[in-house]
Amino acid sequence: MKKILIVDDEKYARFLYMEILGKNYEFTEVEDGIEAIEELESDTYDLALVDLNLPFIRGEEVIKQVIGKLKKTKIVIISALKQEELIKELTELGIVGLITKPINDIKELKESVKKWCE
């Protein structure tokens, strides 16, 4: 079973991702940048969904700190904001995708996560 780390400070958002993606994945959820770094450094996940707007350490800083160390875990950013320069910079660092909030197409989200976990 593929393992997904969900990093979002909104409890309902984490719940929603788990409900949408279903029982085909094993989930771990954290709510801030400090916890995210601790979990990501274990590199035991197939995919990490990382919100950019996190308490303590912002999502982009989390990604910049850990992405070079990851061998297995792929990172996808979650954002409600259109931050084209930041997204371009993170893509160059190695993120594999972007999920925009609010989620408008559940089928597309499921298909994208399945592809990213391959």
From TrEMBL:
<protein>
    <submittedName>
        <fullName>Response regulator</fullName>
    </submittedName>
</protein>
<dbReference type="InterPro" id="IPR011006">
    <property type="entry name" value="CheY-like_superfamily"/>
</dbReference>
<feature type="domain" description="Response regulatory">
    <location>
        <begin position="3"/>
        <end position="116"/>
    </location>
</feature>
<dbReference type="GO" id="GO:0000160">
    <property type="term" value="P:phosphorelay signal transduction system"/>
</dbReference>
<keyword id="KW-0597">Phosphoprotein</keyword>
<dbReference type="InterPro" id="IPR050595">
    <property type="entry name" value="Bact_response_regulator"/>
</dbReference>
<dbReference type="InterPro" id="IPR001789">
    <property type="entry name" value="Sig_transdc_resp-reg_receiver"/>
</dbReference>
<feature type="modified residue" description="4-aspartylphosphate">
    <location>
        <position position="51"/>
    </location>
</feature>
<dbReference type="Pfam" id="PF00072">
    <property type="entry name" value="Response_reg"/>
</dbReference>
